[in-house]
Specification:
- This protein is mainly alpha-helical and 171 residues long.
- The chain is built from 6 helices and 2 strands.
- The chain has a two-stranded antiparallel sheet.
- Helix 1 crosses helix 3 (78-95) and helix 1 (25-39) crosses helix 5 (126-142).
- The termini are far apart.
Length: 171
């Protein structure tokens, strides 16, 4: 609201869509930075980041820490949207000097700059601490490209068969 009580238009992104903080490139970018900071200096490719981001949010489904996000029906559909949001979020990180694109064996990969882990260290929100804990767990168990493919296949197969685990460790 403006000082006169008039409703102000929401901030818009190209295409005229309003900017919302939840599931925005900024939020997804912060989660990606947590993953890149925890894996630093080892880079990750986009497929790994997509799978690891899902694991961080839904870790309870994979015998990890309690899930950060609710176990909603059709959550496996997140994978399709997550890739585009991650690409946008990574661009935010690159512009801010917190991440870089590097050339790897399989193509383009992403890594945290020296500033990236330091930036994450100064964030004191409990949610960020929970992200870091789950990122460490996910990277310890699923960091390789082969593991990322395996996780992605598991998620897709569950979606196809309709057998997503209900109530699997939501926190």
């Amino acid at each position: 609201m403006s000082p006169l009580g008039e409703r102000q238009p929401p901030h818009l992104v190209p295409g005229g869509r309003p900017v919302t903080p939840l599931n925005s490139p900024l939020e997804v970018g912060v989660r990606a930075l947590v993953l890149l900071a925890e894996s630093h200096p080892r880079p990750l490719d986009l497929a790994q980041l997509v799978a690891l981001d899902y694991l961080v949010l839904h870790s309870g489904e994979f015998n990890g820490p309690r899930s950060l996000h609710p176990d909603l029906p059709a959550r496996e559909g997140e994978l399709g949207r997550k890739r585009a949001l991650l690409e946008q979020g990574l661009l935010v990180l690159i512009r801010a000097g917190l991440a870089d694109i590097v050339s790897g064996e399989g193509g383009l990969m992403y890594e945290a700059t020296e500033t990236g882990p330091t930036f994450i260290e100064v964030l004191e929100a409990p949610y960020v601490a929970s992200l870091r804990e789950r990122a460490e767990w996910a990277l310890h168990h699923y960091a390789s490209p082969a593991h990322a493919r395996s996780v992605t296949n598991q998620i897709i197969n569950r979606a196809a068969s309709g057998s997503a685990s209900e109530g699997a460790g939501h926190g």
